[in-house]
Amino acid sequence: MGRFRVFFLLIFLSVLGLEALKTQTRFKPLKTKPYVPQANDPTTPGHPVVLVPGDGGSQIEANLTGKPSVVHYTCYSKTADFFDLWLDLTSFVPVTIDCWVDNMRLVFNTTTGMSEDSPGVETRIQGFGGTASVEWLDKSKASQGTYFTYIADALTKWGYTRGKDLRGAPFDWRRAPHELTGYYAMLRTLIETTYYYNNNTKVIILGHSMGNPSMLEVNRSRMRISDQKDDVSLGRF
């Protein structure tokens, strides 16, 4: 019985940690709820949709390649493979959260003018083009980790297919706009290929929060393309 109590205590502390994180950072969860089907719902998809997340809206994985130091003796300095960095609710319990912060932080390089991973930490964003990494921030699919989940579910009920006419464009939301030029190029390619593989149907970009300035950056540059139909903004930014 004692193990169950400890387990539920950890879950409770994790939820409290996430709530505290939301109040102390720019992370704004997408407030949605399960879609209730209507009698006049469409049965065939319209324009293809690309989901562009905001701050905190993409999963981040990390691999510790050999950190020169750790902030607590319980923290790992090296791991055998990539693990979930954002979002893993179990990381927000006391002590463990200190390890998480040190793995999550970026270091500014004054020579290049760019930010870098913390020494001994390698991070990556997985699932570009798919929707899994923007639907659920926590791979365990805990309710606190829902993001574009209900929107994607609603669109599939309208005939959309994940990976075909419903795409996702996760990115490293910790980075400054000038550090995301590679992402902008990937996004352009994603829009073009989605347009092409859906019978040359123009694409709608659905952005949330700080994902909208990312789209603005694309639109202000020469990367604006004719394959794009419209931008739809959700939430404050």
From TrEMBL:
Pfam families: LCAT (PF02450). The keyword Chaperone does not apply. One of its GO terms (molecular function) is O-acyltransferase activity. Coiled coil: none annotated. Keywords: Signal. GO terms for biological process: lipid metabolic process. The keyword Zinc-finger does not apply. Residues 1-20 form the signal peptide. This is Uncharacterized protein. It comes from Steinernema carpocapsae.
